[in-house]
Amino acid sequence: MAEGELTKRDFEALARFRFGIRRYLRFSEETVRSHGVTPQHYQLMLALKGFPGRDWATVRELAERLQLRHHSVVELVDRAQGQGLVERSPHPDDARSVRVLLSGEGERILGRLSALHRNELRRMDDVLALPTWQDGDGAIDGR
Q1: Which residues form the HTH marR-type domain (predicted)?
Q2: Would you state the CATH architecture of domain 8-129?
Q3: I need a labelling partner for 130 at 20 to 30 A (CA). Which of 7, 49, 140, 142 fits?
Q4: DSSP letters along 37-83, please?
Q5: What does the pLDDT look like over 9-25, one tens digit per residue?
Q6: Rounded distance, CA 85 to CA 25, Å?
Q7: What is the dihedral of CA 103, 105, 108, 112, to 10 degrees?
Q8: Which residues contact 85 (CB under 8 A, 6 or more apart)?
Q9: CA distances from 20 to 63, 69, 98 (A)
């Protein structure tokens, strides 16, 4: 077999991992909707609560974290604010920017939903484990 060529086992590992990702995403979408939240709002709230070093972020930072365009994040924040999930406050160091943070209601909903997500990830541990690859010399690479 030529170097870099995938084996049947490699394809099976990739397919199993992809199936696990899709199964998790479907669980997530159905779970958040059953709690009256859109998947995009859940992702926004999680990005805010999980932002490194603080509990707020700017729209620009959220756009990077969510891999969305700036104007799409502005619209998402507008809708989430309308539902009482997030709040805006002036940025103390940059008058052109605002801080986006979770509201009390957003904190409550995010806590409940994230606990459900954590439990599902624990159940799916085997399916979502990164595949291991065997190179041509038989060595195993877990990256």
Answers
A1: 3-143
A2: Orthogonal Bundle (1.10)
A3: 49
A4: --HHHHHHHHHHHTSTTSSEE-HHHHHHHHT--HHHHHHHHHHHHHT
A5: 889 889 999 999 999 99
A6: 21
A7: -120
A8: 37, 41, 44, 45, 102, 103, 105, 106, 109
A9: 26, 28, 37
Tokens read off for 103: 């509201």
Domain boundaries, the chain: 8-129
Q: How many Å apart are CA 142 and CA 66, to the nearest integer?
A: 27
CB 106 within 8 A of CB 85: yes
- Identify the H or E element spanning 122: helix 104-123
Q: What are the counts of helices (DSSP H) followed by strands (DSSP E) for the chain?
A: 5, 5
pTM assigned to the model: 0.84
